[in-house]
Amino acid sequence: MRVLVVGQGGREHVLAWKIAQSPKVEQVYCAPGNAGTAADVQNVDIAADNVRELIAFATSEKFDLTVIGPEVPLVAGLSDALVDAGLRVFGPSKAAAELEGSKAFAKQVMRQAGVPTADFKVFTEAREAFTYLEEREDEPIVVKADGLAAGKGVMVCSGRDEALAAVREIAVDRAFGDAGGRIVIEEKLVGQEASILAIIDGKSILPLETAQDHKPAYDDDEGPNTGGMGAYSPAPIVTPEMMERIYSKILIPTVHEMKRLKRPFKGVLYAGLILTSQGPKVLEYNVRFGDPEAQPVLSRLKTDLIDVLVAAADGKLHNLPDLTWDSRPAVCVVMASEGYPGKYEKGHPIRGLAEADAMKDVKVFHAGTKIRGDTVVNDGGRVLGVTALGDDITSAKLQAYSAVKKIRWQGAWCRKDISDKARA
Protein backbone atom coordinates (compact mmCIF):
# COMPACT_ATOMS: atom_id res chain seq x y z
CA MET A 1 0.00 0.00 0.00
CA ARG A 2 0.97 3.61 -0.59
CA VAL A 3 -0.27 6.10 2.00
CA LEU A 4 -0.47 9.89 2.20
CA VAL A 5 -0.56 11.59 5.61
CA VAL A 6 -1.73 15.22 5.53
CA GLY A 7 -0.32 17.62 8.14
CA GLN A 8 2.89 18.80 9.74
CA GLY A 9 2.59 18.41 13.51
CA GLY A 10 3.44 15.86 16.16
CA ARG A 11 0.20 13.99 15.49
CA GLU A 12 1.14 13.55 11.84
CA HIS A 13 4.66 12.43 12.74
CA VAL A 14 3.42 9.63 14.98
CA LEU A 15 0.80 8.62 12.37
CA ALA A 16 3.36 8.49 9.56
CA TRP A 17 5.91 6.68 11.75
CA LYS A 18 3.37 4.09 12.89
CA ILE A 19 1.90 3.52 9.42
CA ALA A 20 5.39 3.08 7.95
CA GLN A 21 6.00 0.18 10.37
CA SER A 22 3.29 -1.89 8.68
CA PRO A 23 4.52 -4.75 6.48
CA LYS A 24 1.55 -3.96 4.22
CA VAL A 25 2.79 -0.43 3.50
CA GLU A 26 5.30 0.17 0.73
CA GLN A 27 5.66 3.95 0.97
CA VAL A 28 4.40 6.82 3.13
CA TYR A 29 4.30 10.47 2.09
CA CYS A 30 3.62 13.38 4.44
CA ALA A 31 2.32 16.73 3.17
CA PRO A 32 3.91 19.03 4.12
CA GLY A 33 5.54 17.22 7.07
CA ASN A 34 8.37 18.49 9.24
CA ALA A 35 12.00 17.69 10.01
CA GLY A 36 10.99 14.55 11.89
CA THR A 37 8.75 13.11 9.20
CA ALA A 38 11.53 13.84 6.67
CA ALA A 39 13.71 11.34 8.56
CA ASP A 40 11.05 8.61 8.72
CA VAL A 41 9.00 8.99 5.50
CA GLN A 42 8.91 11.14 2.32
CA ASN A 43 7.86 14.77 2.71
CA VAL A 44 5.89 16.58 0.00
CA ASP A 45 5.85 20.38 -0.10
CA ILE A 46 2.07 20.87 -0.18
CA ALA A 47 0.33 22.77 2.62
CA ALA A 48 -2.30 20.84 4.59
CA ASP A 49 -4.99 23.40 3.68
CA ASN A 50 -4.19 23.44 -0.05
CA VAL A 51 -7.10 21.22 -1.06
CA ARG A 52 -6.65 21.65 -4.81
CA GLU A 53 -2.99 20.61 -4.85
CA LEU A 54 -3.55 17.77 -2.38
CA ILE A 55 -6.34 16.33 -4.56
CA ALA A 56 -4.17 16.63 -7.67
CA PHE A 57 -1.23 14.92 -5.95
CA ALA A 58 -3.30 12.15 -4.34
CA THR A 59 -5.07 11.45 -7.64
CA SER A 60 -1.88 11.36 -9.71
CA GLU A 61 -0.12 9.11 -7.20
CA LYS A 62 -3.20 6.86 -6.75
CA PHE A 63 -2.73 6.48 -3.00
CA ASP A 64 -4.44 3.51 -1.37
CA LEU A 65 -5.26 5.62 1.68
CA THR A 66 -5.06 9.29 2.64
CA VAL A 67 -5.01 10.04 6.38
CA ILE A 68 -5.96 13.63 7.25
CA GLY A 69 -4.33 14.74 10.49
CA PRO A 70 -5.33 18.35 11.32
CA GLU A 71 -8.74 19.86 11.85
CA VAL A 72 -8.43 22.76 9.38
CA PRO A 73 -8.48 20.68 6.15
CA LEU A 74 -11.20 18.45 7.61
CA VAL A 75 -13.43 21.42 8.37
CA ALA A 76 -12.62 22.78 4.88
CA GLY A 77 -13.92 19.58 3.24
CA LEU A 78 -10.73 17.81 2.11
CA SER A 79 -12.20 14.41 3.00
CA ASP A 80 -15.23 15.01 0.77
CA ALA A 81 -13.03 16.13 -2.13
CA LEU A 82 -10.89 12.99 -1.86
CA VAL A 83 -13.97 10.75 -1.79
CA ASP A 84 -15.38 12.59 -4.82
CA ALA A 85 -12.10 11.86 -6.60
CA GLY A 86 -12.63 8.15 -5.95
CA LEU A 87 -9.98 7.83 -3.26
CA ARG A 88 -10.09 6.08 0.10
CA VAL A 89 -9.75 8.51 2.99
CA PHE A 90 -9.55 8.36 6.77
CA GLY A 91 -11.17 11.48 8.21
CA PRO A 92 -14.70 12.81 8.66
CA SER A 93 -16.70 14.73 6.08
CA LYS A 94 -17.01 18.51 6.25
CA ALA A 95 -20.53 18.13 7.68
CA ALA A 96 -19.35 15.76 10.42
CA ALA A 97 -16.21 17.84 11.14
CA GLU A 98 -18.45 20.68 12.31
CA LEU A 99 -18.36 18.89 15.67
CA GLU A 100 -14.97 20.59 16.04
CA GLY A 101 -15.43 23.44 13.60
CA SER A 102 -18.25 24.93 15.69
CA LYS A 103 -18.41 24.61 19.46
CA ALA A 104 -22.00 25.84 19.33
CA PHE A 105 -22.95 23.04 16.92
CA ALA A 106 -21.21 20.46 19.11
CA LYS A 107 -23.08 21.68 22.20
CA GLN A 108 -26.40 21.48 20.35
CA VAL A 109 -25.60 17.90 19.29
CA MET A 110 -24.80 17.01 22.88
CA ARG A 111 -28.00 18.62 24.11
CA GLN A 112 -30.10 16.76 21.52
CA ALA A 113 -28.34 13.46 22.26
CA GLY A 114 -28.61 13.81 26.03
CA VAL A 115 -24.82 13.76 26.43
CA PRO A 116 -23.65 15.16 29.79
CA THR A 117 -21.90 18.52 29.33
CA ALA A 118 -21.71 21.95 30.94
CA ASP A 119 -24.75 24.27 30.79
CA PHE A 120 -24.17 26.85 28.06
CA LYS A 121 -25.48 29.76 26.03
CA VAL A 122 -24.45 30.87 22.53
CA PHE A 123 -24.07 34.54 21.52
CA THR A 124 -23.52 36.24 18.17
CA GLU A 125 -23.37 39.75 19.63
CA ALA A 126 -20.80 40.86 22.21
CA ARG A 127 -23.24 43.24 23.91
CA GLU A 128 -25.70 40.40 24.55
CA ALA A 129 -22.91 38.37 26.13
CA PHE A 130 -21.90 41.36 28.27
CA THR A 131 -25.51 41.76 29.48
CA TYR A 132 -25.79 38.04 30.24
CA LEU A 133 -22.59 38.09 32.31
CA GLU A 134 -23.60 41.25 34.17
CA GLU A 135 -26.86 39.60 35.23
CA ARG A 136 -25.22 36.35 36.37
CA GLU A 137 -23.68 35.62 39.74
CA ASP A 138 -19.99 36.46 39.97
CA GLU A 139 -18.60 32.91 39.67
CA PRO A 140 -16.07 30.94 37.60
CA ILE A 141 -17.09 30.62 33.96
CA VAL A 142 -15.66 29.53 30.61
CA VAL A 143 -15.72 31.66 27.45
CA LYS A 144 -15.04 30.01 24.09
CA ALA A 145 -14.58 31.19 20.54
CA ASP A 146 -17.00 29.17 18.43
CA GLY A 147 -14.63 28.36 15.56
CA LEU A 148 -11.16 26.90 15.18
CA ALA A 149 -8.49 28.71 17.19
CA ALA A 150 -5.60 26.21 17.28
CA GLY A 151 -6.53 25.05 20.78
CA LYS A 152 -6.26 28.55 22.25
CA GLY A 153 -9.79 29.96 21.93
CA VAL A 154 -10.93 28.77 25.35
CA MET A 155 -10.62 31.06 28.37
CA VAL A 156 -11.25 29.76 31.87
CA CYS A 157 -12.27 32.75 33.96
CA SER A 158 -12.27 33.02 37.75
CA GLY A 159 -15.16 35.50 37.78
CA ARG A 160 -17.20 38.14 35.96
CA ASP A 161 -14.43 40.64 35.28
CA GLU A 162 -12.23 38.03 33.61
CA ALA A 163 -15.20 36.71 31.64
CA LEU A 164 -16.09 40.21 30.38
CA ALA A 165 -12.47 40.71 29.34
CA ALA A 166 -12.50 37.32 27.54
CA VAL A 167 -15.65 38.25 25.60
CA ARG A 168 -14.04 41.54 24.63
CA GLU A 169 -10.86 39.78 23.46
CA ILE A 170 -12.71 37.14 21.44
CA ALA A 171 -15.76 38.95 20.07
CA VAL A 172 -14.66 42.61 19.93
CA ASP A 173 -10.89 42.56 19.45
CA ARG A 174 -11.18 39.34 17.41
CA ALA A 175 -7.98 37.88 18.86
CA PHE A 176 -8.82 34.61 17.07
CA GLY A 177 -10.18 36.15 13.88
CA ASP A 178 -13.38 34.76 12.43
CA ALA A 179 -13.43 32.04 15.09
CA GLY A 180 -14.87 34.72 17.38
CA GLY A 181 -17.92 35.40 15.20
CA ARG A 182 -19.92 33.46 17.77
CA ILE A 183 -19.05 32.79 21.39
CA VAL A 184 -20.11 30.06 23.80
CA ILE A 185 -20.35 30.86 27.50
CA GLU A 186 -20.64 27.88 29.82
CA GLU A 187 -20.35 26.87 33.44
CA LYS A 188 -16.91 25.85 34.64
CA LEU A 189 -16.70 22.12 35.31
CA VAL A 190 -14.55 20.94 38.20
CA GLY A 191 -12.52 17.73 38.07
CA GLN A 192 -9.63 16.06 36.31
CA GLU A 193 -9.47 15.98 32.52
CA ALA A 194 -9.30 12.82 30.43
CA SER A 195 -9.01 12.27 26.70
CA ILE A 196 -10.97 9.52 24.97
CA LEU A 197 -10.12 8.72 21.36
CA ALA A 198 -12.45 6.43 19.42
CA ILE A 199 -12.22 5.16 15.85
CA ILE A 200 -15.65 5.30 14.17
CA ASP A 201 -16.80 4.04 10.76
CA GLY A 202 -20.21 5.67 10.77
CA LYS A 203 -21.81 2.90 12.83
CA SER A 204 -19.26 0.94 14.85
CA ILE A 205 -17.22 2.52 17.66
CA LEU A 206 -13.74 1.33 18.62
CA PRO A 207 -12.35 3.17 21.68
CA LEU A 208 -8.58 3.42 21.99
CA GLU A 209 -6.60 3.36 25.22
CA THR A 210 -7.18 6.31 27.53
CA ALA A 211 -4.92 9.34 27.93
CA GLN A 212 -4.66 12.53 29.94
CA ASP A 213 -3.54 15.83 28.40
CA HIS A 214 -2.09 18.88 30.19
CA LYS A 215 -3.56 22.04 28.62
CA PRO A 216 -2.33 24.86 30.91
CA ALA A 217 1.15 26.11 30.06
CA TYR A 218 2.84 25.73 33.42
CA ASP A 219 3.32 23.21 36.23
CA ASP A 220 0.39 22.52 38.56
CA ASP A 221 -2.00 23.52 35.74
CA GLU A 222 -1.17 27.21 36.01
CA GLY A 223 -1.06 29.74 33.20
CA PRO A 224 -2.84 30.18 29.87
CA ASN A 225 -4.35 27.36 27.84
CA THR A 226 -2.21 25.79 25.11
CA GLY A 227 -2.61 23.13 22.46
CA GLY A 228 -1.29 20.65 25.04
CA MET A 229 1.98 20.51 26.97
CA GLY A 230 2.19 16.75 27.36
CA ALA A 231 0.16 13.60 27.84
CA TYR A 232 0.37 10.09 29.18
CA SER A 233 -1.43 6.82 28.56
CA PRO A 234 -3.22 5.04 30.09
CA ALA A 235 -5.03 7.37 32.49
CA PRO A 236 -5.69 5.35 35.69
CA ILE A 237 -8.46 7.74 36.71
CA VAL A 238 -10.60 6.30 33.88
CA THR A 239 -11.59 2.98 35.38
CA PRO A 240 -13.15 0.18 33.29
CA GLU A 241 -16.53 1.02 34.87
CA MET A 242 -16.15 4.70 33.95
CA MET A 243 -15.06 3.76 30.42
CA GLU A 244 -18.24 1.74 30.00
CA ARG A 245 -20.24 4.76 31.13
CA ILE A 246 -18.40 7.01 28.67
CA TYR A 247 -19.06 4.52 25.88
CA SER A 248 -22.77 4.15 26.59
CA LYS A 249 -23.67 7.70 27.70
CA ILE A 250 -21.35 9.78 25.51
CA LEU A 251 -19.92 7.98 22.46
CA ILE A 252 -22.97 5.94 21.40
CA PRO A 253 -25.51 8.81 21.72
CA THR A 254 -23.23 11.19 19.83
CA VAL A 255 -22.66 8.79 16.94
CA HIS A 256 -26.39 8.04 16.76
CA GLU A 257 -27.27 11.74 16.78
CA MET A 258 -24.80 12.50 13.98
CA LYS A 259 -26.31 9.67 11.95
CA ARG A 260 -29.80 11.05 12.63
CA LEU A 261 -28.63 14.47 11.40
CA LYS A 262 -27.44 12.76 8.19
CA ARG A 263 -23.85 13.62 9.09
CA PRO A 264 -22.48 10.10 9.74
CA PHE A 265 -19.13 10.28 11.49
CA LYS A 266 -16.16 8.35 10.05
CA GLY A 267 -12.71 8.93 11.50
CA VAL A 268 -11.45 9.72 15.00
CA LEU A 269 -13.80 11.26 17.54
CA TYR A 270 -11.87 12.83 20.40
CA ALA A 271 -13.92 13.48 23.52
CA GLY A 272 -12.23 15.86 25.94
CA LEU A 273 -13.82 15.10 29.30
CA ILE A 274 -13.97 16.50 32.81
CA LEU A 275 -14.47 13.80 35.42
CA THR A 276 -16.84 15.64 37.76
CA SER A 277 -18.40 14.46 41.01
CA GLN A 278 -21.56 13.75 38.97
CA GLY A 279 -19.64 11.67 36.46
CA PRO A 280 -17.84 12.33 33.16
CA LYS A 281 -18.97 15.39 31.18
CA VAL A 282 -17.82 16.51 27.72
CA LEU A 283 -15.71 19.66 27.54
CA GLU A 284 -15.32 19.55 23.76
CA TYR A 285 -15.19 17.30 20.74
CA ASN A 286 -12.34 17.15 18.26
CA VAL A 287 -12.57 15.26 14.99
CA ARG A 288 -8.99 14.01 14.74
CA PHE A 289 -6.30 12.40 16.85
CA GLY A 290 -5.33 14.57 19.79
CA ASP A 291 -1.91 16.16 19.82
CA PRO A 292 -0.10 15.28 22.10
CA GLU A 293 -2.38 12.35 23.11
CA ALA A 294 -1.75 10.50 19.85
CA GLN A 295 1.96 10.19 20.64
CA PRO A 296 1.70 8.07 23.84
CA VAL A 297 -1.48 6.24 22.74
CA LEU A 298 -0.22 5.14 19.32
CA SER A 299 3.23 4.36 20.76
CA ARG A 300 1.48 1.67 22.81
CA LEU A 301 -0.61 0.23 19.94
CA LYS A 302 0.60 -3.20 18.82
CA THR A 303 -2.14 -3.87 16.26
CA ASP A 304 -1.16 -2.77 12.75
CA LEU A 305 -2.53 0.78 12.55
CA ILE A 306 -3.13 0.52 8.81
CA ASP A 307 -5.63 -2.30 9.39
CA VAL A 308 -7.59 -0.06 11.77
CA LEU A 309 -7.59 2.97 9.48
CA VAL A 310 -8.60 1.00 6.38
CA ALA A 311 -11.38 -0.83 8.26
CA ALA A 312 -12.77 2.51 9.44
CA ALA A 313 -12.54 4.07 5.98
CA ASP A 314 -14.31 1.05 4.45
CA GLY A 315 -17.04 0.87 7.11
CA LYS A 316 -15.82 -2.53 8.32
CA LEU A 317 -14.66 -1.97 11.88
CA HIS A 318 -16.97 -4.78 12.99
CA ASN A 319 -14.68 -7.26 11.15
CA LEU A 320 -11.58 -6.11 13.05
CA PRO A 321 -10.18 -8.32 15.86
CA ASP A 322 -9.70 -6.77 19.30
CA LEU A 323 -6.83 -4.30 19.43
CA THR A 324 -3.65 -5.35 21.21
CA TRP A 325 -1.66 -2.92 23.35
CA ASP A 326 1.72 -2.68 25.01
CA SER A 327 0.89 -2.96 28.71
CA ARG A 328 3.60 -0.44 29.57
CA PRO A 329 2.55 3.20 30.06
CA ALA A 330 3.89 5.98 27.84
CA VAL A 331 4.63 9.62 28.68
CA CYS A 332 4.96 12.45 26.13
CA VAL A 333 6.59 15.72 27.20
CA VAL A 334 6.13 18.70 24.87
CA MET A 335 9.13 20.97 24.46
CA ALA A 336 8.08 24.48 23.43
CA SER A 337 9.57 27.71 22.13
CA GLU A 338 10.18 30.57 24.52
CA GLY A 339 7.07 32.77 24.68
CA TYR A 340 4.56 30.09 23.66
CA PRO A 341 1.51 30.23 23.74
CA GLY A 342 2.19 33.90 22.98
CA LYS A 343 4.73 35.26 20.50
CA TYR A 344 7.90 33.27 19.98
CA GLU A 345 10.99 33.30 17.80
CA LYS A 346 11.69 30.69 15.13
CA GLY A 347 14.87 29.45 13.49
CA HIS A 348 16.98 28.43 16.49
CA PRO A 349 19.15 25.34 15.86
CA ILE A 350 18.13 22.27 17.88
CA ARG A 351 20.90 20.11 19.35
CA GLY A 352 20.81 16.62 20.87
CA LEU A 353 18.01 15.07 18.82
CA ALA A 354 20.02 12.03 17.74
CA GLU A 355 21.21 11.40 21.30
CA ALA A 356 17.67 11.51 22.66
CA ASP A 357 16.26 9.32 19.89
CA ALA A 358 18.97 6.73 20.52
CA MET A 359 17.75 6.11 24.08
CA LYS A 360 15.92 2.89 24.84
CA ASP A 361 12.12 3.08 24.43
CA VAL A 362 12.28 6.78 23.41
CA LYS A 363 10.95 8.41 20.26
CA VAL A 364 11.20 12.16 19.64
CA PHE A 365 8.17 13.24 17.61
CA HIS A 366 8.56 16.54 15.79
CA ALA A 367 5.81 19.17 15.70
CA GLY A 368 7.13 22.67 14.99
CA THR A 369 10.43 21.90 13.24
CA LYS A 370 11.95 22.33 9.80
CA ILE A 371 15.28 21.70 8.12
CA ARG A 372 17.47 24.70 7.29
CA GLY A 373 20.50 23.57 5.37
CA ASP A 374 21.61 20.52 7.30
CA THR A 375 20.29 21.79 10.65
CA VAL A 376 16.97 21.16 12.36
CA VAL A 377 15.48 24.41 13.72
CA ASN A 378 12.37 25.31 15.72
CA ASP A 379 9.50 26.45 13.51
CA GLY A 380 6.51 26.57 15.85
CA GLY A 381 5.29 27.07 19.41
CA ARG A 382 5.12 23.42 20.35
CA VAL A 383 8.31 22.00 18.86
CA LEU A 384 8.85 18.40 20.02
CA GLY A 385 6.91 15.63 21.77
CA VAL A 386 9.51 13.56 23.59
CA THR A 387 7.81 10.21 24.21
CA ALA A 388 8.99 7.24 26.27
CA LEU A 389 7.66 3.88 27.43
CA GLY A 390 8.44 2.47 30.87
CA ASP A 391 7.56 -0.50 33.07
CA ASP A 392 5.46 1.88 35.16
CA ILE A 393 4.46 5.53 34.95
CA THR A 394 7.40 6.63 37.12
CA SER A 395 10.00 4.99 34.90
CA ALA A 396 8.27 6.23 31.73
CA LYS A 397 8.38 9.79 33.08
CA LEU A 398 12.03 9.43 34.11
CA GLN A 399 13.00 8.15 30.67
CA ALA A 400 11.08 10.91 28.87
CA TYR A 401 12.65 13.68 30.94
CA SER A 402 16.10 12.09 30.63
CA ALA A 403 15.66 12.40 26.88
CA VAL A 404 14.40 15.99 27.23
CA LYS A 405 17.62 16.91 29.03
CA LYS A 406 19.67 15.89 26.00
CA ILE A 407 17.84 18.36 23.70
CA ARG A 408 18.64 22.05 23.61
CA TRP A 409 17.85 25.18 21.62
CA GLN A 410 17.67 28.84 22.60
CA GLY A 411 14.63 29.38 24.82
CA ALA A 412 13.48 25.73 24.97
CA TRP A 413 11.22 24.90 27.91
CA CYS A 414 8.67 22.35 29.10
CA ARG A 415 6.42 21.50 32.01
CA LYS A 416 8.16 19.33 34.61
CA ASP A 417 5.09 17.53 35.98
CA ILE A 418 3.68 15.58 33.04
CA SER A 419 2.04 12.34 34.33
CA ASP A 420 2.27 13.25 38.04
CA LYS A 421 -1.52 13.07 38.27
CA ALA A 422 -1.33 9.36 37.50
CA ARG A 423 0.54 8.85 40.77
CA ALA A 424 -1.52 11.23 42.90
From TrEMBL:
Pathway this chain belongs to: Purine metabolism; IMP biosynthesis via de novo pathway; N(1)-(5-phospho-D-ribosyl)glycinamide from 5-phospho-alpha-D-ribose 1-diphosphate: step 2/2
Cofactor(s) in the UniProt record: Mn(2+); Mg(2+)
Entry's EC annotation: 6.3.4.13
Entry-linked SUPFAM superfamilies: Glutathione synthetase ATP-binding domain-like (SSF56059), PreATP-grasp domain (SSF52440), Rudiment single hybrid motif (SSF51246)
BP terms from Gene Ontology: 'de novo' IMP biosynthetic process; purine nucleobase biosynthetic process
InterPro entries: ATP-grasp, ATP_grasp_subdomain_1, PreATP-grasp_dom_sf, PRibGlycinamid_synth_ATP-grasp, PRibGlycinamide_synth, PRibGlycinamide_synth_C-dom, PRibGlycinamide_synth_C_sf, PRibGlycinamide_synth_CS
Entry keywords, A to Z: ATP-binding, Ligase, Manganese, Metal-binding, Nucleotide-binding, Purine biosynthesis
Pfam families, per the entry: GARS_A (PF01071), GARS_C (PF02843), GARS_N (PF02844)
Domain ATP-grasp: 107-314
Molecular function GO terms recorded: ATP binding; metal ion binding; phosphoribosylamine-glycine ligase activity
Family: Belongs to the GARS family.
Name the UniProt record assigns to this protein: Phosphoribosylamine--glycine ligase
Gene that this polypeptide is encoded by: purD
